[in-house]
Amino acid sequence: MEITRVHSTTYTVPVDLPGSDELDDTIVFVTVETDEGISGYGETGYLYPEATASFINEQIAPEIRGRNPLETERIWDHLYRELNPRAQTGTWSTAVSAVDIALWDIKGKHYDQPVWRLLGGASETIPVYHTIGRAIRDEQQLADLASDLVSDGATRVKVVVGKGEWATPRIDAARVTAVRDAVGDEIGLSMDANYLYSVDEALELCNRLESVSIDWFEEPVYGNDASLLADLRRRTQVPIGAGQNEGHRFRHRELIENDAVDVSMPNVCFTGGFTEATKVAGMAAAFNRRLVHGGGWPYQNMHLYAGLAAGQLVEFHDIVWEVANKIYESPPQPSDGSITLPEEPGLGLVPDWDELRPYEDE
């Protein structure tokens, strides 16, 4: 089998969520075609979408046309050596992520097996958590949204902190506390600062939430600085998580070796696809770090986290989840705190082209 065509396009998809004005999210969608008629689909997102799509079409496509798509390790290594000899991340990692996901989709379809089983088949179900990924200032509105998720079956909820011009540790502590009061003590609760706080601000927030049980504090400080994360981790009892936007295993190694994280969070859509993310997952397991998905794109990442025994949780981020539900035909849905992985070969995702085409960027 040979790769005959690789094509990437960006789409800006509108999102309508309760409690917010209309939003949109830009995705990079990749199609890899083969001479046996099998096509694979990959996806990545908001990090440099136009540059990522261009890099795939102009740089990656010529390198992998004519190659066997089943040889995912060989292709990944070739792209690394030819197009990224100095181990830069950014556009390279996001582009290779989408292509690698599409190749694994082809591999699953060729072998008539779902990707999660090819990766190890650890479990046909995986627990999930639900993220309110918007900067909602109003405590009651945020608490109501969290309560609605729990009423619909969610057993774990994550809220964004540090986001919004009004955000301070004092305000965010009140917001998180309002959610805890609304959902009760039996519901898992975590928070995500998207790199937006200084270490002192992050520590103040942790101190203000000493009486509130927090499962983890995700990417709390500027730039995911490993030394600052390690400093924060030593000074708080709140578990620290990071890694969803980090490309390459080397960056994840830095976080683990510096004792900067309790929770390792590789995302196949940014770390380098399944081929690289499995290496990160193995490293996290070797160092006894929790392995939790962050950063959205659940329908790709659930295959990694269910495929490996170390995988613990998959994130259903409200914005990205809504986009995925619009662009795929009848994707599986979480229920009562978990999701059952598909038995269809590959990723089990069928693009809804009629829905996608109107959102294609010019």
Describe the structure in your own words.
There is one protein chain. By secondary structure, the chain is α/β, with parallel strands linked by helices. It is built from 14 helices and 12 strands. The strands form 2 sheets. Strands 4-5-6-7-8-9-10-11 form an 8-stranded parallel beta barrel, surrounded by 7 helices. Helix 12 links the parallel strand 10 (290-292) and strand 11. The protein is globular.
Outline:
With 362 residues, the chain is an alpha/beta fold.
**How are strands sequenced across the largest beta sheet?**
4-5-6-7-8-9-10-11
Low-confidence stretches are none
Instruction: List how many beta strands DSSP finds.
Output: 12
Order of helical and strand elements: EEEHHHHEHEHEHEHEHEHHEHEHEH
Proportion of β residues? 15-25%
Described by the principal axes of the CA atoms, the overall outline is globular
Structural class of the secondary elements? alpha/beta
Which sheet architecture does the biggest sheet show?
Answer: 8 strands, parallel, barrel
Percent in helix: 40-55%
Radius of gyration: 20 Å
Give the helix/strand layout.
Elements (H helix, E strand, L loop, with lengths): L2 E13 L7 E12 L4 E6 L4 H16 L7 H12 L7 H21 L3 H4 L6 E8 L6 H13 L4 E5 L8 H15 L4 E5 L6 H10 L8 E2 L7 H10 L4 E3 L6 H9 L5 E2 L3 H4 L1 H14 L3 E3 L5 H10 L3 E7 H10 L10 E3 L12 H4 L6
Parallel strand pairs: 4-5, 4-11, 5-6, 6-7, 7-8, 8-9, 9-10, 10-11
Antiparallel strand pairs: 1-2, 2-3, 4-12
Helix pairs in contact: 1-2, 1-3, 2-3, 3-11, 5-6, 6-7, 7-8, 9-11
